[in-house]
Amino acid sequence: MAARTLLAAALLGTALAVPIEERQACASQWAQCGGQGWTGPTCCVAGSVCTVGNTFYSQCLPGSAAPSSSSTIASSTIRTSSTPVVSPSRTSTTAGSVSTTSAGPGTGTTPAPTGGATYTGNPFVGVDLFANSYYASEISTLAIPSLSPALATAAAKVAKVPTFMDTRAKVPLVDATLADIRKANQAGANYAGEFVVYNLPDRDCAAAASNGELSIADGGVAKYKEYIDSIRAMIIKYSDIRIILTIEPDSLANLVTNLNVAKCAGAQAAYLECTNYAVTQLNLPNVAMYLDGGHAGWLGWPANLPPAATMYAKVYKDANKPKALRGLVTNVSNYNAYSVSSPPSYTQGNANYDEKHYIEALAPLLSAEGWDAKFIVDQGRSGKQPTGQLAWGDWCNAIGTGFGLRPSADTGSTLVDAFVWVKPGGESDGTSDTTAARYDLNCGKSDALKPAPEAGTWFQAYFEQLLKNANPAF
After folding, report:
1. How far apart are alpha carbons 14 and 10 in whole angstroms?
2. EC (predicted)?
3. Which of 64, 300, 324, 390 has its CB 3.0 to 4.6 Å from that of 358, i.e. a possible disulfide?
4. Rounded to the nearest 5 degrees, what angle is found at the Cα of 57, between the Cα atoms of 105 and 37?
5. Binding site residue list for substrate
6. Is the pLDDT reported for residue 146 higher than 70?
């Protein structure tokens, strides 16, 4: 645990200093201070340090260093997307409930284990989840120092809730997390790990804010299979631990609705090939997988439901119906309630105005196609209803949102295995800087909180909004 915390802290503390010209106006705390194509200030005001987030973005984060600047971008990244791979969390031992506490490419040749942490039925039942020290370190290092005592106390509780990580760069942290889980389990605990596989080539093909690190044109499919092979080997290494995976947020749903977008049409074959490879290679006895299933405001419209069911069922059957492929995860990084008493105005025209209605509409269609799928639902940012969204599709840093239902397997539905937090609340969905290479128009809308940093980097104002609007409150 300590080693991983130190690694996360080291990543967060990476800063490149150059001499500061006396007349240079330094960026304020939380503002951008560097990145590919950046022409603004490259230093930070006193009390902040310019910290590399990714190739496109460096940010002024709280720190004791003197004003510093970053004119060069390091190759390592802290986080490169708006959606989270790993989120260990800790839960109660009561069956059916989860309560958190502290915190050679494409070969697939690693043999599967013959024993280990096997399960039947709902994989969230009968285990505890393990708290993610990476997210906890973000909160303790970046969020808490500027909060009031009351909010700081509440924020410390948020740090104990399950969230997830992403990108190939996180694989070593996943390994360290699993090592911690094994150590705890050997001491008598019964933890499982939650992780998101999120590295498709040309990922998020209909958006700009969270483009990934792999390109189809640059051998991305082979590199993706390499990435999956590394995850497979790691899962087999820890075959004594139950592992729950969310597979590729913001991917397959685009193949239902966005094939009119050239990038999505061009990525279709690669998405299907890579997803097939992932669910086939990760079909291991200690694994439960959930494909990303969009959300009520995306695939829940009547015209989208039948093609969505057909597509997802085909993916399932083309992979030879993997035993570990349990179903779909919905509402990833979104704001929809699981169940709300009256439909928000921006859902007008769709009878499936929350995730419960969406799941109950989609599940029978999937079953008719040959897949009796189960679901998990991201409720990390769904606590305040209605939100401040002006349109249902306004996904970027939406105003009027709050932390939502805590992770739990006590869902009251035979279709829904668990409520989860996939998106780490406080990490940006995308930058509002119109000059940035990854600027998306959705992040500049009037119902998006601004100014916002690059996707995946810390957004203090957004974290505070989620904390103040949390329902249930912390």
Report:
1. 6
2. 3.2.1.-
3. 300
4. 100
5. 166, 295, 298, 334, 395, 423, 427
6. yes
